[in-house]
Automatic annotation (TrEMBL):
SUPFAM superfamilies: Ribonuclease H-like (SSF53098). This is RNase H type-1 domain-containing protein. It comes from the Eukaryota. The lineage of its organism: Eukaryota, Viridiplantae, Streptophyta, Embryophyta, Tracheophyta. One of its GO terms (molecular function) is RNA-DNA hybrid ribonuclease activity.
Length: 98
């Protein structure tokens, strides 16, 4: 899994990839990757961000349109990290920096 930080013009500013093991479902892996991307964006000093991903189930859970008890701890962690940003949005499909 990995993440890419782009500016509003699409120019790559930073990126990283890694391997996550021990996740039971694709959704757990996607949540882990999102947490990793959020933490990376914060540690690099970005405060206005848009996160995009391609997993509709995770997107729905983040938008509170769906409940998934298996993902609850991941979602709590993601919500806690949101407070570290001035402006954070989550969209479905492809992470941009404003």
């Amino acid at each position: 899994m990995g993440w890419i930080i782009r500016n509003k013009y699409g120019i790559v500013l930073d990126c990283e990839m890694g391997r996550f093991e021990g996740r039971s479902t694709v959704e757990e892996g996607e949540c882990t990757a999102l947490i990793w991307a959020i933490q990376a964006a914060y540690s690099l000093g970005y405060k206005k961000v848009i996160f995009e991903g391609d997993n509709i189930q995770v997107t729905r859970c983040l938008q509170a349109a769906s409940i998934n008890l298996r993902l609850e701890n991941y979602l709590i962690t993601i919500s806690a990290w949101k407070s570290h940003f001035h402006n954070i949005r989550g969209l479905q499909i492809p992470v941009h920096i404003c």
